[in-house]
Design goal:
heterodimer; B: 13 helices; 31% helix; globular
Chain lengths: 682, 451
C-alpha cells in the first residue's frame, strides 16, 4: 500500500500542468463556453470541454441570472434531437445542480421520450418545487419498464406524498420489478394507506421476500419518530411476532425497544434472561443505547439472575463500560467451568482487571482456545502497570511457547522496565532463547538503551545470531532523528574497542551509514590489520544507498581476493537497484551492464531477481528474453510476477504482461508463483 | 416463490441461478438463521460465522486474506461481476480450506454473479462488502434489510445521502457493522489517539490530516467488454458509459466521479477517521469549511487531484486536511498545548518523545482494543468484527464512525467543487442555509437500483 501511495503521489507531479483550481478566477462568458462540443461529445472522448462546463455550472450558482442562463443552455442540449447521448447525460447531471422550475416545461416534454426520458428524469428528480414533482407523477401512466421504475424511484427519492395513491396501485400490479420499486418508494411515504398496501404485499410475498416487511419496519420507524406511537407500536408487535422472518423480527424487536418511553432496562434484562434467541441478540445489541444514571446499577443488580448466555453478554458489556463493581463477577466467571462465561470473564478482565488478576489470566493461557487467546489479549490490554512485575516473574519461570507469548505481551504493553531482562535473554546462544527477546526489544528499546544493547554484538558467536542483533541495533539507531548522527553511539564504542570488537561493529556501522560512518570504514580499509580491512570492506558492502556504487564496482573488478570481488559485486547489484532519483531505464541499463561483468551464475541470478523492482516495460521484455535460459528461468519468472504486481505498469501493457504471465504459468514449477501470476491475469 | 422467479429485496433471482448456487436452499426458507451468531443459548465458543464475499477485486481479496487466518469464520459464497476473477478467487478460497483441513480438495464455497442471490442465502450470516464505491450504498442497504452483519469497505457511500440510508438501516435492523478503516486495529494508531483522548498532549487546538492526492488518466477509446465480465452489473446504479479498458480498473475508477468521489474521500477517510478517533469533536460539532482544490482539465477523470482545506469549530479547534505534502504530511497529527503526536502507517512520532512509551493507567480513558492475531492490522480488524458478531457490541469502527468519516471526505469534496466556504451541521446532516451545496448530497441512480 505504501508503494502504491507513493506511486500515486509521484504520478501527480508530471500532470500538474493539466490541473485547474476549483476556486474560479476570471470565469469565461457563458456564450464562450464549449456548448457545441457538449452537443457533439461522444463517450470516450477527452473530458476537457465537459470539465470546463462543470466548473462554469458551479461558478454560476453565485448569480441567479447566470444560473438561469447556464441551466437553459443545458436543457437546450438535453432537448436537442441532434445532441449525442453522452452530451445529454452530462447536461442532465448538471441540471440537477443548476436547474429550476423554469426548465421544467421543457423537461416535461422529454419524460416519455425513449432516448431522452432517463436524462430528463435525472434532472427532474433533483429540481426543487412542486412543478417537477407534478411532471413525474403525471408521467407514471405513460411509462413502463425501466423508465417507469426510474420515475417511481425518483418520486420515492423526493418523498413525494401525493404520489402515494398511484404507487399503491403499482405495488399491487402484475409487473414484479415495478411492484418492488413501488414498495421501496412507499417505504419512504408513511401513512395508513401505505401501511395497508405494504401489509397486503407482505401477505402475498410470503416469507422468502423480505422487501414489503423491511419497508413496513421503515414506515413504522418513521411514524414512531412522528409521534404516531400507537400505529407504530402495533406494527412492531405484528412484525416481531414468532414466525416472522428472523431479520424482520429482530428489526421490529429493536424498534420496540427504541420506542419505549420507560422500562427499557427491565425489558433488556427480561430478554437477556429468556429463551428467545432473537430477543436476546437484540437486547445485547441495545445495551449501549440504554441511557440514564441508574442503568448500570440496575443491570448490575440483574446480572446474577441471568442464565449463562445472557449473563456472558452483560458481563462483557459492563466491563467495556468500565463498571468496576463487575470485577468480582468477572473473576468468578473466569475461574468457572462454563466455557461461554469463562470466555466473557477472561475478556472482561482485560478491560477492568488489575494486577491482582494477572496470575488468573496467566493460568488461563493453558485453557485451550479460544480462552487462551482471549487471556493473551487481556494481558496486553489490562491498564495496570503493576501487572508488568507479575509478567516478568512468569517470564523467568516460563519455557518455550509460553515464554514467547509472555514476551509478546510485554512488548505490546510497552513495558520498558523489562528491557534489561530481555537483553540478558537475548544474549543466550540458543536461537529458541534469543529470537523472541530480540523481537520484543525491537518494539521496546530506545537509543538510550544502546549502551546495554551493543555488547550483544560481541557476545553473539554465531553469524545468524549476530545478524539478528545487528538488525535490532539498526532499528534502534534508526530512531535517532538526524540521519548523520545515527551511527554516533556505535562509533563511540568503536573508538574504544579492541580489534575483535571493531571487526564486529564495523558491518553495523556500514548498515547505518552517514558521513562519520564512512570515515570510520575508510580508516578500517586503510588499516594494516587484515581482519580490520576485511571488516571495513564488509561494512562498505552493507552501505544503505547507491552513493558507494562506483567504489563497489571498482572493488568487484580489482579486489585482491576473488571472495572479496564476489562480495563487492553482490553489494553493487544491491545498491544500484535500490530506490533512487535515477530513471528506471538507467537502472535497467546498469543491471544489464552488471550482467556482463558478473562472473558467477549466483551473481547473475541476483541481477535478474533485482530487476523485478525496476518498473519499466523494457525490464519486462528483457526478463522475457531470459525465460528460455534454464539457468535463469526461475529468477526471471519471479521478477516478471513482481513487475506484474505494479498495476500502473501492468494495465497499460496488459497484452505483453498477459503473454509473459502465461509463459510463467506454463513453465514454473513453483505453485505459489503460479498462483500469484494467475492473480494478475484478469 | 411462484413461477420461475423468486423475489428478494427488489431484485429478481432466477430459479436457474438458485439451483446453481443454493441447492440446499430450495428446501429451506430464505431467511437468516441466526444459528451461528453465538446467541442462541447453545453457543459453542468455536462456532463458525459463515461469510459471503461481495466484490472480490483488489480490496475484496485483501478482506478475504485477512479472514483466512481466523478459525472462527468460513467463506461459503462469493460474488463478482467478473467471472474469471470470481473463478480464480474461488479456487484460492477452496485451496485455503483444503490446506487447513489437510485434504486434497475442498468444495464448500459457491459462486454467485449477482449479490442479490447471495443475500438470499440462509446459510450466510455475515458479509464482506467490497464492491466499488458507487455500489456501497445499494449493497449495504439491501444487505442490512436482509439482516446480514457486515464488514464494509470505506467510504460508507459515494454520497452523504446514501451513507445516511446505510447507517439508518443498519441501526434500525440492529446489525453489527465494521467499517474498513483498519488503522483503528493497528496499535500505533490506537496509542496516538489514546494519548490525545487521555490528555497527554494537553488541550488539542490543531489537527492536521493528509492523504495521497489523486491523479489523472488519459482518455481511453471504447472497446468490447471482455468475455465473462458483466459490465452492466458492474455499472449498477452509476450512469452507463460505454466500456473502455481503463475505467473499471484500480486506480482509474477511484478518479471518476460516477464511481468514487476521488482520493479526497476514498483515501482521506482513513486518516480523517483517525482524526475523529483522537478528537471526536471533529465529527460531533458543526464546522465551517473553506479551502481550494485542483481538478483535471482533460483526460478521462474528473475528481480532485490536490486540495488544501480548513475546518473551523466554534471551540477554536482547527483541522486542516490536504493531500500529502500540500502542506500537511501524510497521516494525522494532533497538536496540543503540551505536545504533539503524529501517526501514519510508517510510524508514530511525538513530542515529547517519551509519549511513545506511555503505559496507560487504569483511570485513563480507554479506547476499543481489537484482538491481536498477528502484525497485520487488517486481520486484527476482521477478528474484531467477528468478535462483535458474537457479542453484538459495536466493533472498533462502527457504522456511525464510518459514516461520519466518510461525510468529512464528501463534504470536503463538495466544498472544493463549489470553490467557496460552506457550513456543515451534524444534527441535520445538511449544509447550513445552502441549497446548492445540499443539491450535491445525492446523485441519481440508474434503474432499477434505488435506496
Amino acid at each position: 500500500m505504501v508503494t502504491n501511495m507513493r506511486t500515486a503521489l509521484l504520478s501527480t507531479i508530471p500532470v500538474l500542468g493539466l490541473l485547474v483550481a476549483a476556486a474560479p478566477g476570471a470565469e469565461p462568458k457563458i456564450d464562450d463556453l464549449p456548448w457545441p462540443a457538449l452537443k457533439s461529445y461522444q463517450y470516450g472522448e477527452d473530458l476537457k470541454p465537459l470539465l470546463a462546463l462543470e466548473r462554469a455550472a458551479h461558478a454560476a450558482l453565485k448569480d441567479a441570472t447566470q444560473r438561469q442562463q447556464v441551466a437553459q443552455r443545458f436543457v437546450d442540449v438535453l432537448s436537442d434531437s441532434q445532441a449525442t447521448p453522452a452530451g445529454r447525460q452530462f447536461a442532465a447531471i448538471q441540471l440537477r445542480v443548476v436547474g429550476s422550475a423554469a426548465q421544467v416545461p421543457q423537461l416535461a416534454k422529454l419524460v416519455a421520450d425513449p432516448a431522452r426520458g432517463e436524462w430528463a428524469r435525472y434532472a427532474l428528480e433533483a429540481i426543487p418545487g412542486p412543478e417537477s414533482a407534478a411532471v413525474l407523477r403525471a408521467a407514471l401512466p405513460q411509462l413502463q419498464g425501466p423508465a417507469l421504475i426510474g420515475t417511481i424511484n425518483a418520486l420515492g427519492a423526493r418523498r413525494d406524498t401525493p404520489s402515494a395513491p398511484a404507487l399503491i396501485q403499482l405495488a399491487a400490479g402484475p409487473d414484479r420489478a415495478v411492484a418492488d420499486a413501488a414498495i421501496t418508494a412507499l417505504g419512504k411515504l408513511p401513512s395508513a394507506d401505505v401501511i395497508a398496501s405494504l401489509q397486503t404485499a407482505k401477505g402475498k410475498a410470503g416469507s422468502a421476500d423480505l422487501l414489503p416487511a423491511a419497508n413496513l419496519v421503515r414506515v413504522a420507524t418513521a411514524l414512531q419518530a412522528a409521534r404516531q406511537a400507537t400505529v407504530a407500536t402495533a406494527l412492531f408487535q405484528e412484525l416481531s411476532a414468532p414466525g416472522q422472518a428472523p431479520a424482520i423480527r429482530r428489526a421490529a424487536l429493536q424498534c420496540t425497544l427504541q420506542a419505549m418511553d420507560r422500562g427499557q432496562t427491565a425489558k433488556v434484562l427480561q430478554w437477556l434472561a429468556g429463551a428467545d434467541a432473537d430477543a436476546r441478540q437484540v437486547a445485547a445489541g441495545f445495551l449501549s443505547s440504554l441511557k440514564g444514571e441508574g442503568v448500570k446499577k440496575e443491570l448490575l443488580a440483574g446480572l446474577d439472575s441471568l442464565p449463562a448466555p445472557g449473563r456472558a453478554l452483560l458481563l462483557q458489556w459492563l466491563a467495556e463500560q468500565q463498571v468496576r463493581e463487575v470485577l468480582p463477577a468477572l473473576v468468578a466467571a473466569a475461574q468457572g467451568n462454563d466455557p461461554v462465561l469463562r470466555l466473557a470473564g477472561v475478556q472482561g478482565l482485560g478491560l477492568v482487571g488489575r494486577a491482582a488478576q494477572t496470575p488468573l489470566l496467566l493460568a488461563a493461557l493453558d485453557a485451550g482456545e479460544p480462552i487462551a487467546t482471549a487471556a493473551q489479549q487481556s494481558l496486553i490490554s489490562m491498564r495496570d502497570p503493576q501487572s508488568d512485575r507479575a509478567l516478568l516473574a512468569a517470564l523467568k519461570a516460563a519455557q518455550g511457547d509460553r515464554r514467547a507469548v509472555i514476551l509478546d505481551v510485554l512488548a505490546q504493553r510497552l513495558s520498558t522496565a523489562v528491557v534489561p531482562e530481555l537483553v540478558a535473554l537475548a544474549a543466550q546462544a540458543d536461537p529458541k532463547q534469543y529470537e523472541k527477546p530480540l523481537e520484543a526489544l525491537r518494539s521496546l528499546a530506545q537509543p538510550s538503551d544502546l549502551p546495554q544493547l551493543l555488547p550483544l554484538l560481541f557476545q553473539a558467536e554465531q553469524p545468524a545470531h549476530r545478524s539478528e542483533v545487528e538488525k535490532l541495533l539498526l532499528v534502534v539507531c534508526g530512531q535517532i532523528g538526524d540521519a548523520d548522527r545515527r551511527a554516533d553511539p556505535v562509533l563511540e564504542v568503536l573508538a574504544k574497542a579492541d580489534v575483535a570488537q571493531r571487526c564486529a561493529l564495523l558491518p553495523l556501522v556500514g548498515r547505518i551509514g552517514g558521513k562519520r560512518a564512512l570515515e570510520a570504514i575508510d580508516a578500517a580499509i586503510a588499516s594494516q590489520d587484515q581482519a580490520l580491512r576485511e571488516a571495513g570492506l564488509r561494512a562498505l558492502c552493507n552501505w544503505p544507498d547507491p552513493s558507494v556504487a562506483a567504489r563497489l564496482l571498482s572493488l568487484a573488478q580489482n579486489a585482491s581476493e576473488p571472495a572479496q570481488q564476489v562480495m563487492a559485486m553482490r553489494a553493487y547489484i544491491r545498491v544500484i537497484s535500490l530506490p533512487d532519483q535515477r530513471p528506471d531505464t538507467e537502472t535497467l541499463a546498469l543491471l544489464q551492464q552488471a550482467m556482463k561483468l558478473a562472473k558467477g551464475d549466483a551473481e547473475k541470478k541476483l541481477i535478474v531477481t533485482r530487476a523485478g523492482a525496476v518498473r519499466t516495460i523494457e525490464t519486462l521484455r528483457w526478463l522475457v528474453s531470459l525465460l528460455d535460459d534454464r539457468k535463469f528461468t526461475h529468477e526471471a519468472s519471479t521478477a516478471i510476477v513482481d513487475l506484474a504486481h505494479n498495476r500502473p505498469l501492468r494495465i497499460p501493457n496488459r497484452q505483453e504482461f498477459t503473454s509473459a504471465l502465461k509463459k510463467v504459468i506454463a513453465t514454473s514449477k513453483s505453485r505459489g508463483l503460479v498462483d500469484r501470476a494467475k492473480q494478475y491475469l484478469d | 416463490m411462484s413461477g420461475t422467479e423468486s423475489r428478494v429485496l427488489g431484485r429478481r433471482v432466477s430459479r436457474r441461478s438458485f439451483v446453481g448456487t443454493a441447492a440446499a436452499g430450495l428446501s429451506l426458507p430464505l431467511l437468516i438463521p441466526g444459528s451461528s451468531l453465538g446467541l442462541n443459548g447453545a453457543t459453542s465458543a468455536n462456532e463458525r460465522v459463515n461469510i459471503g464475499a461481495i466484490g472480490v477485486g483488489v480490496r475484496g481479496r485483501h478482506a478475504l486474506n485477512s479472514l483466512f487466518p481466523l478459525p472462527d469464520a468460513q467463506v461459503v459464497a462469493a460474488c463478482d461481476p467478473r467471472q474469471p476473477r470470481l473463478t480464480s478467487v474461488l479456487e484460492q478460497i477452496e485451496r485455503n480450506y483444503a490446506e487447513k483441513l489437510g485434504r486434497q480438495t475442498y468444495k464448500g464455497c459457491t459462486a454467485c454473479k449477482d449479490f442479490v442471490e447471495l443475500l438470499a442465502r440462509s446459510d450466510v450470516d455475515a458479509l464482506l462488502v467490497c464492491p466499488p464505491d458507487h455500489w456501497h450504498g445499494v449493497v449495504m442497504t439491501r444487505a442490512a434489510q436482509a439482516g446480514k452483519d457486515m464488514y464494509g469497505e470505506k467510504p460508507i457511500s459515494r454520497t452523504i445521502a446514501e451513507g445516511i440510508m446505510v447507517r439508518d438501516t443498519v441501526r434500525r435492523q440492529g446489525l453489527v457493522f465494521q467499517t474498513g478503516t483498519q488503522q483503528r486495529s493497528d496499535p500505533k494508531f490506537r496509542h496516538a489517539c489514546q494519548l490525545v483522548r487521555a490528555g497527554y498532549i494537553g488541550k488539542v487546538h490543531t489537527v492536521k490530516v493528509a492523504a495521497p492526492g489523486g491523479r489523472t488518466y488519459d482518455t481511453e477509446p471504447s472497446c468490447p467488454v471482455p468475455e465473462g465480465f458483466d459490465y452492466d452489473m458492474w455499472s449498477g446504479p452509476a450512469p452507463y458509459i460505454p466500456f473502455d479498458a481503463k475505467r473499471c480498473e484500480w486506480l482509474a475508477m477511484y478518479m471518476i466521479s460516477h464511481y468514487c468521489a476521488g482520493f479526497i474521500c476514498n483515501w482521506g477517510v482513513h486518516h480523517l477517521d483517525i482524526a475523529q478517533w483522537g478528537c471526536p469533536e471533529v465529527t460531533r460539532e458543526p464546522f465551517e469549511l473553506e479551502g481550494s482544490g485542483t481538478f483535471p482539465e482533460e483526460g478521462m477523470t474528473d475528481t480532485c487531484i490536490t486540495w488544501n482545506t480548513t475546518f473551523r469549530y466554534a471551540s477554536g479547534l482547527v483541522m486542516s486536511f490536504s493531500n500529502a505534502g500540500n502542506p500537511n504530511e501524510m497521516g494525522c497529527r494532533f497538536e496540543g498545548d503540551e505536545g504533539w503526536v503524529h501517526v501514519d502507517r510508517k510510524g508514530i512520532w511525538a513530542n515529547p518523545e517519551s509519549l511513545l512509551r506511555v503505559q496507560f493507567k487504569p483511570n485513563d480513558e480507554p479506547l476499543h482494543v481489537s484482538p491481536w492475531i498477528n502484525s497485520n492490522p487488517y486481520t486484527n480488524h476482521t477478528a474484531d468484527f467477528l468478535r462483535s458478531v458474537r457479542s453484538r457490541r459495536d466493533p472498533v469502527s462502527s457504522i456511525d464512525d464510518g459514516h461520519r468519516a466518510s461525510t468529512l471526505g464528501n463534504v470536503a469534496d463538495i466544498m472544493v467543487r463549489l470553490g467557496r466556504k460552506v457550513r456543515w451541521d451534524w444534527k441535520s446532516e445538511r449544509f447550513v442555509d445552502d441549497d446548492q451545496a445540499n443539491q450535491l448530497l445525492s446523485r441519481p441512480m440508474r434503474p432499477p437500483w434505488t435506496l
